[in-house]
Design brief:
Elements: E1 4-8, H1 13-28, E2 37-41, H2 46-50, E3 59-62, E4 65-69, H3 76-99
Parallel strand pairs: 1-2
Antiparallel strand pairs: 1-3, 3-4
Helix pairs in contact: 1-3
Length: 100
Amino acid sequence: MNDVLFFYIPGCPYCRRADKLLDELCRERPDFAAVSLRRVDETREPALAESYDYYRVPTLFFGRTKLYEAHPSHSEKEMKTHLQQALKLVLAAQKVTTLS
């Protein structure tokens, strides 16, 4: 599976912020748009959500690796930095896989 899983809960303000920031990052860095992002509403897919180790939403996983788990203390700038780092890691991993 090459998708980044983006676990969220509808109505969550942190999830809405992360979604907005992901869109912003993709506009700023078009190469980020190549990352396949699967949004997982944990209220609709509880079995999938429960099979991953996280506590807060939004949370991003690539495979079984947790890339980011939000924390209420994160400012918008901190959240954007974490999301950007996550997308960079995915792109780097995809390049390695492509070269192999």
